[in-house]
User: What shape does this take?
Amino acid sequence: MTMFPFPAILALVAAVRLSEIQANPQEGLPEFVELSGTPGRCLAGWSLSDATRRRVFPDSSAIAASGLLVVSPDCRSLREAWAGADIPCVQPSSWGRLSAGSDLLVLRDSLGTVTDSVHWSEKNWGAWPRGKSRVRTSPDAPGSDPLSWRISRAELGASPGWIEAFPEETGSSFALEIPRRTMHPGTPFAMVVRSEAPVRLELFDLARRPAGIVFDGTPPVDGRIVWDGKVAGRNPTPGVYLLLARCGGGIRREWIAVGKP
Amino acid sequence: MLAQSWCAAFEARLPAAAVEGRGGPSVAWISEGDPADANPALVARKGGEVGGGLTRPLGLVELSLGGLWGRVPLGAGWALGGRWKSLRAAELYREDAWGGDLAWAGGRWAMGCGMRGGHVSLEGEDLGTPLGGAVGISVRLVEGFSVAGVLEDPSFLGTGGLAQPWTLGLGGALEGRDSSWAGDLSVERRQIGGWSGRVGQELRLEPLRIRAGLRANPWTISVGLGGGFRGVRMDWALEGDPDLGWQHHISSAWSF
Assistant: This one.
């Protein structure tokens, strides 16, 4: 599993943030929400609310030495699933099921002040894959921006109590990420293309015919590219397409369904 | 016509491994396990058949494409053909397409025409139902001709005018006197995308079929294997290119 604890990074961040969410676990595994913050920070009286329920943390809650704390209705099952790993986990007084389709999570401190929140829906984030958690790319990344969250690539589909190392953090400098798989021409579609070298991003239909070039050049430092949905000045016809990113000899592929403008 | 090309939403071909192993559908020649969707005239060139096939377009695990086809002789050289295919993309996108052909063959000649239709939805949103037609001529063992044009569906208008590219296909085929091999060549001119072509070869070592094909613009190569017993056959093909990905096709057909 390509994961490692990162207390050094989190020590720089004073605010407590939502760092991983599992709203669609495998059968038999519990949901969980992972928080990141300064190690040792007490979270007694803090709460996590969604559209239906408020989950109050027990008095013993505190950010662990790893800089993380997992909140789950079943810490024991979570630890068993991860082979007895010492996952810092607390069980709130009650737990209402999260909705993988659409939900709002709000983190409040003991005074009721909102410290972080995230809102997801299938329309903006795409379908939540069964058994996979969503991991925040950075504690400072905007909570409700789909590009701030990535689907876990950990072996068990999630990494509670651990921070995953994604390819760009392990030395590979070329990656293509899309926030969702549907787009409508005329509605800006933001993507992340990580590369220090020039990249050509092309659109192909399922018969392998090129439909047009989406981007050709060196991506900005943050990798964020906003596509207006047009290729060669025209809207692509509705259908399923392949986004192909080429950089040197490297290739990254993602499919996308295009609707009407 | 090259019926599979009537609209960008329906670009994925009906997955028939006997066809894909030879580089794609031919406008001039039809084999066993062939939906004959490149030229409606070919429906009258063979006897009755029903079949079905599956693939994952571009090798992407979240996409699935399946299809069924059938053709039945009506007597006096007439034949009816039909096909249906369905593409699903991770429960977000779905398209269903159908086609029906009426063809006649007599002596060296065959002629056919057909209708094409379909339906597309994205996350439950109805995107359109284009309709179209196709005509084709086939001269035995020599050449085939087809042309397609599709009536534009109002719901697709305003998307850049790409919805209804016409395609013209022309091709020829040769078959060994002892039927131990067959090869065919097709060239197509598409309204958008220009010229493209393909060449395919089938070697018959009863009951095996060994196939290979090459397509240009876009460039793909393909190989295939098939076998049959008492009219029932199974075929497999691998087709694609290194950049966009490889895809396997599996299909089965019963000839009667």
The interface with chain A takes residues 4-5, 7-13, 57-58, 60, 62-63, 87, 89-93, 95, 120, 122-123, 125, 127-128, 155-156, 158-163, 193, 218, 220, 240-241, 243-245 of chain B (CB under 8 Å). The radius of gyration of chain B is 17 Å.
